[in-house]
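Hi team,

Below is the intake form for chorismate mutase from Micavibrio aeruginosavorus EPB. Please confirm the fields before the structure is written into the shared record.

FORM ID: S-0412
PROTEIN: chorismate mutase
ORGANISM: Micavibrio aeruginosavorus EPB
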Amino acid sequence: MVDSVDDLRREIDDLDNNLHDLLMKRADLVKKIGEEKRRNKIQVIQPDREAVMIRRLMDRHHGALPRHAVVRIWRELVGAVSLLQTDVKVIVCAPDEQMTEAWDMAKNYFGSVVPMQKMTNPMNALSMVKEGEVTFAVLPWPDDQDPKPWWAYMRGESPEKIAHIVASLPYGSGVDSRTRPGFKALVVGCLKFNDSGNDHSFLFLDLDDSISRARIVDRLKAMGLTPLSLLSRKGHPGLERTQHFVEVDRYIANGEMTDQILVKLENTDGNCICLGGYPVIPALES
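The structure came back. Fields below:
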């Protein structure tokens, strides 16, 4: 019996050595990829590529190791190698009573080695992203009760200061049972929101007051888009405008599609911008 246990432990030690060798090799390859990206001016951090990787692993995964553990391991890897490619810094923004949940979700997503700091004011956090003081901000999921919602201030004065939503937290359902049910956040950074093959998008609409929320929902559905949430606020004082924040169930790129939305709403002098979105991650409970 003892010999059998010892043999199994030696086999595990060999596997650990092999895993460590592969991790070191992977880190070297990622560092080389980062150098090539910078040389060719390619976006270094790519949440869409990371999501495709996670989906591929979940499709092939089997056995006793929980799915959420696999995702945690790979998110830790992604966070560690991101520091090899670029200087990643994260600010976590949440009210004091929600900071523990927000911090845990951010740590699960970015990993334990990426520097993070806390803040309670989302407008200040968003400004730090735009000014390049931090790479990402984890911001509270928007709700209708906020009189000054951060999503209304995402547009930048110059292309390099345009922030996009690039991920949602928690990263897949069932990742962390300590997180209160329904507690969510969004990750914002000054990088492009790219198509991962299964995404949700957030649209910013600045429309005439005559355009009702019901019309927005109906016209988006007529275009094959399913609105998942719709928040609204009055625009600038003195202007008969209303701003809307709409989540839809597919990837939207700025350009032809956003122009078509304004035509469908019969408000071509309005404004429709995709503020980004997030890759949909498979359920991780099992």
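SUMMARY LINE: Residues 175-179 have pLDDT under 50 and may be disordered.

Thanks, M.
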